[in-house]
Design brief:
Oligomer: homodimer
Strand content of chain A: 15-25%
CATH architecture of one domain in chain A: 3-Layer(aba) Sandwich
CATH class of one domain in chain A: Alpha Beta
Structural class of chain A: alpha/beta
Radius of gyration of chain A: 21 Å
Largest interface: A-B, 40 and 42 residues
Shape of chain A: globular
Distance between the termini of chain A: 54 Å
Chain lengths: 452, 452
């Protein structure tokens, strides 16, 4: 077994194909429905805002999907990403467990999001689209799509939730460095934005509003499409590059995980890491446990229900069959902006229902404790979102110590926290709340799910 | 020749020894002088604030100095650092030149500074010291020393120039995450700080004042020493790990640089990259050009004079024989805080005097233009300091295009700019000044050099 801290792959060892778990799932999720007709959506329902290649991937049951050379060339700027053995953290925890983590934070936007932003921009460009629109909350996805559009010489318009636009100027700066136009949402750029501003000029905005603005422009213009950073099947397919590399790296280390952990908001980070290993569980009977970790303030998988729901507040998107807290649920203002989403990937939802994966939730004071312990041992200051996976891995390593079991734990460190430092300041000053959610709040939102 | 974008080394290929250019220099710099007696300093003058091993390294003429295993173990968290071939930038410049860059920004503090912070903390710990003090301006060095002290379980007190403490809270947050105490300087922690505050309660502070505070505490307490992030010989020895790795990586790429470029403030970044290649020039007659790039607003090498000067404003440090603008010179408020120093490394100064290296200067609007061109092609948002090297490399690549010469250019990308984004905002808003320095200002400062 290697005594190295980092397990690296050469560029020649980078995967040439993405993995599509739909080829292997015992049960596929129910199909998305057209929000008007409540009938399953067809390609024609989606072609106003997505390119055909992504619509094809969305329903594909092919196990392997080729990564275009043009995308692989840009992946090489940071991929294959390193796998680390967290030797110093293991020692600090005095655990017999071995802890590995895959680090996606060395990418240009500092998170895993560019893995899918690049192919999304590429396929759109191939089909003659020259402009993309999107929404962003904390800004990770907006940064990634801005960079992807820059690499393929496309224009990018980002609608950034107004309160984040004002509070998180650093990520906005990066989008602008890469040439994007960034608008605080609600904006005067769209009909839906203007309508909202007329009613409430001081609206702080929300992801649901920003989605409406981005989709409105994409639907109206022939040269413009829309791009989404999580939830959908094609996004999770692209993210599989994470888990595929991790499998090669674990093999190089002479090891295989007993437990695979990732944080889970829309599901692209969890799916990207876990699905290639879940293949081994479904097809080869591997005994690995898979844990999706979400914030206790937005407990979609652990306290939501499985059913059809809208992706946005206004009800403009297709209805997805997923675990949801209800589209009207407004998560408390936790610092893990990337995990504040009422729904979840239909693929992740189905795997949870079928007992192939587990889900758990953590409060934000716990995850910042884990983040600081991790930083002081491994050097990297992690993103709050990724710190959910860290704290869960710490808990599992401590359980292994209690049980005296030399478990092998693998988690995805999906991004660094260098643009989240005010959150750390708030934690160190003792100002963070955990926002326990009373049943009543959830029941109210869940009582209003659309009737199918 | 490899077609890879990244040239990686395994942990086994990491250097086991640092390189000390004093073994090879045709002329050594004149020795430092005691500020009171004006006689050459002896070990006893320095032992109040530095451990003996670093004092030994400061005067050593051994070519190779062993890297302690304990330091190499922590280096493995990010070392060997990657060497990139900037293929996309080359294409954008339409140049026949090959451009390589060594990337030090993937380290925990995001810059090259941890390369020396770690051994400095280690040697102090070995000699029974449990606390270190230092000063920091923009915060790169303070972050690195905080992390190094954390890794070796030492306390760290950082005196941060007050105006930076207030304007750059992000780097302060990182120091605190790693357990340091950070004080805005001038502070009430020291006699010199209290004296200054009594005279001017609103003093914005300066590096010179912060050095005085850090040195005062270190000199008074037996368990406490002081650490410096650049200028001194032992710092440049530790940074040689950059150039040693780059030599191995260039060999793997089947190439050798015609031009080596690094930005230069105190000289540790330039020395770290260049000195191992300068060995080949001195010892083997290699024809490589070496370019130290400084800001035109702080033109130590290009417009200063070579002579004895103090390292700080108060005149407490030994007199160093170096290019200087005069210790009383106050550089304009450019965004490359790491390059705002009146003096330069005595080793770099001597090599410039002997014609072995060259120096040039660039204005800050030019370097931000280079930074954005680089980011849009290579993905990484560079630190303003490092962008001096980028813009110089771009200029050399364009000159190679004019001349039709396939030059091989290597530069050091010493850090990322994710904690410098307000500087980018100011540039994009057209608000940056170049601060051309009239002769008069320089002549005044240079007229007041200490008389030896």
């Amino acid at each position: 077994m290697s005594s190295d801290v980092k397990i690296l792959l050469s560029e020649k060892e980078m995967p040439e194909k993405w993995y599509n778990i739909m080829a292997d799932m015992p049960n596929l999720p129910k199909p998305p429905l057209n929000p008007a007709t409540k009938e399953p959506v067809g390609p024609e329902d989606l072609s106003a805002i997505f390119p055909m290649e992504l619509i094809k991937q969305e329903v594909s049951q092919e196990r392997w999907i080729e990564i275009p050379d043009e995308v692989r060339e840009i992946y090489k700027l940071w991929r294959p990403s390193p796998l680390y053995r967290a030797r110093r953290l293991e020692k600090a925890l005095d655990t017999p467990a071995k802890i590995y983590y895959k680090y996606e934070g060395a990418s240009p936007p500092g998170s895993h999001k560019l893995n899918t932003a690049l192919p999304q921009a590429y396929y759109n460009k191939q089909e003659g689209i020259t402009k993309l629109t999107t929404e962003t909350g904390a800004g990770q996805w907006g940064m990634a799509l801005s960079q992807a559009c820059n690499f393929f010489n496309m224009e990018c318009k980002v609608f950034m939730v107004k309160v984040s636009y004002q509070q998180k100027p650093y990520r906005r700066s990066v989008m602008q460095i890469f040439g994007s136009s960034v608008f605080p949402s609600p904006s005067t750029e769209t009909e839906s934005g203007r309508k909202l501003l007329a009613a409430d000029p001081d609206s702080p905005g929300s992801l649901g509003i920003a989605i409406s603005e981005a989709v409105e422009i994409a639907a109206q213009r022939d040269d413009t499409n829309y791009a989404l950073g999580s939830v959908l099947n094609h996004v999770l397919i692209h993210q599989s590059v994470i888990g595929l590399e991790a499998k090669e790296q674990m093999a190089k280390a002479g090891d295989y995980p007993d437990i695979v952990i990732a944080c889970c908001g829309g599901g692209s980070n969890f799916g990207g890491m876990a699905f290639p290993f879940i293949h081994d569980k479904i097809v080869n009977g591997a005994k690995t446990r898979f844990i999706a970790v979400e914030p206790s303030a937005c407990p979609t998988l652990t306290r939501g229900v499985l059913g059809y729901d809208y992706g946005d507040v206004a009800g403009l998107t297709p209805l997805l069959y997923m675990y949801t807290l209800g589209a009207e649920f407004m998560p408390p203002g936790i610092h893990s902006g990337g995990l504040r989403y009422h729904g979840d990937s239909p693929l992740v939802s189905q795997l949870l229902k079928d007992g192939i994966i587990e889900a758990t939730s953590l409060g934000q004071t716990a995850i910042f404790e884990g983040a600081i312990l991790f930083a002081r041992n491994e050097g990297i200051v992690p993103a709050p979102e990724s710190s959910h996976a860290i704290q869960c891995a710490i808990n599992e390593a401590l359980a292994a110590r209690e049980a005296g079991e030399a478990k092998t734990i693998l988690f995805n460190l999906s991004g660094h926290g260098l643009l989240d430092l005010p959150s750390y300041d708030a934690f160190m000053a003792g100002k963070l709340e955990d926002y326990p959610l009373p049943e009543g709040i959830l029941n109210k939102a869940l009582g209003n799910l659309p009737k199918i």
